[in-house]
Design brief:
Blueprint (H helix, E strand, L loop, with lengths): L13 E10 L2 E11 L3 E6 L6 H8 L7 E6 L10 H4 E4 L11 H11 L6 H8 L15 H13 L5 E5 L7 H16 L3 E6 L2 H7 L2 E6 L2 E7 H5 L7 E4 L3 H10 L3 E4 L4 E5 L3 H10 L6 E4 L4 H14 L5
Parallel strand pairs: 3-7, 3-8, 5-6, 6-7
Antiparallel strand pairs: 1-2, 1-4, 8-9, 10-12, 10-13, 11-12
Helix pairs in contact: 3-4, 4-5
């Protein structure tokens, strides 16, 4: 059970099925099918203009799909019996009235959603804005506006959290806070879907990834599977006997590049073979790592492949 007495992990997942939005005949979201499961952080990744916001707006009932569906726990937002307590969203952090204090902003949302006003103090504390609660939102930095937007999303202690580019404007401490926070929500069995174009952050935060480009699904996959070390990837090896090791590896027919005074990059064999050659030469190693593609590499490769597939738009 969550703090508001809602059962957790009861299938409040998100599911898009053949979701499509056309503006003036052009599909900006194009037959998109994906899921975000309870108990996990799902990252929604795509370049600017890929259709992320439009998808999230359709999820929240702010934009009407041309065809297909996007549902929460199997229901469209309009069919949910208690939407304010089921889904909380951050769509545009700058949409706060600049003359309102953070507290007043939250109070007006609490009233509209039929939420106990005492919750306002709790969410301000949750996002670290207690002391700024009486300040006008117009004086807030973008990072503080993001925190206020997240506080608004949390008012109903929702099962499902949807955050559109929540990392924008956050400083490193804010980013770390948000990552930990999303982890906790997911660990409670809730569904967390957040969009970003910041790949290194996405790699650190998301359990599952939905990648889109030009409105279409590029891939949906657990993060681990996307960025796992590939045995064909180069190996990085560090030793104080760099020249001796380079020679031994080259003798074994491997392709060796000098990276620094003590570091080599080796292709043509895996880490175990490189380690075996070093051991046979009596060379002590300080590091032996199979390099892996970063999420950025994977993303660029996948979006390139999808751009090259030649299918009509
Ligand atoms: P992202 O969030 O991935 O940056 P968006 O969903 O904001 O992408 O936008 C996807 C595409 O849809 C963009 O080309 C954008 O210009 C277009 N678009 C979004 N909203 C509208 C609208 N109301 N009318 C026409 N085009 C739109």
């Amino acid at each position: 059970m969550t703090a508001n007495g809602h059962p957790t992990g009861t299938g409040c997942g998100i599911a898009a099925h053949e979701l499509t939005k056309r503006y003036a005949g052009t599909a900006v979201v194009d037959r998109l099918t994906f899921t975000a499961r309870p108990g996990a952080i799902t990252g929604f990744l795509g370049p600017n203009g890929a259709g992320k916001s439009t998808t999230l707006r359709m999820l929240l009932g702010l934009v009407r799909p041309t065809s297909g569906s996007i549902t929460i726990g199997g229901r469209r937002l309009g069919e949910l019996p208690d939407p304010a307590r089921t889904v909380g969203a951050l769509i545009d952090a700058r949409s706060v009235h600049p003359n309102r204090t953070a507290k007043d902003h939250l109070l007006s949302y609490a009233t509209a959603g039929g939420i106990d006003p005492r919750r306002v103090g709790e969410v301000l504390e949750l996002v670290g804005l207690t002391r700024a609660g009486s300040r006008r939102a117009g004086e807030f930095s973008l990072g503080m506006q993001q925190r206020l937007g997240i506080a608004t999303a949390l008012l109903g202690d929702p099962e499902v959290l949807v955050l559109d580019e929540p990392l924008n404007g956050l400083d490193p401490e804010g980013i770390r806070w948000l990552r930990t926070f999303m982890r906790h929500r997911a660990a409670e069995g809730r569904t967390v879907l957040f969009s970003s174009h910041l790949m290194s952050e996405m790699e650190l935060t998301a359990d599952d990834l939905v990648v889109i480009a030009r409105g279409r699904l590029v891939t949906q996959s657990p993060m681990q599977q996307l960025v796992q070390a590939d045995p064909g990837q180069p190996v990085q090896v560090r030793t104080r006997s760099r020249a001796d090791l380079a020679e031994a590896l080259a003798r074994a027919g491997l392709d060796v590049t000098v990276r620094t005074d003590t570091t080599l990059r080796v292709t043509g064999a895996g880490a175990s073979e490189v380690g075996r050659i070093a051991a046979a030469e009596g060379i002590a190693l300080e590091e032996l790592t199979t390099l892996r593609e970063s999420l950025e590499d994977v993303f660029l490769r996948l979006t390139q492949e999808s751009a090259d597939d030649g299918s009509p738009r």
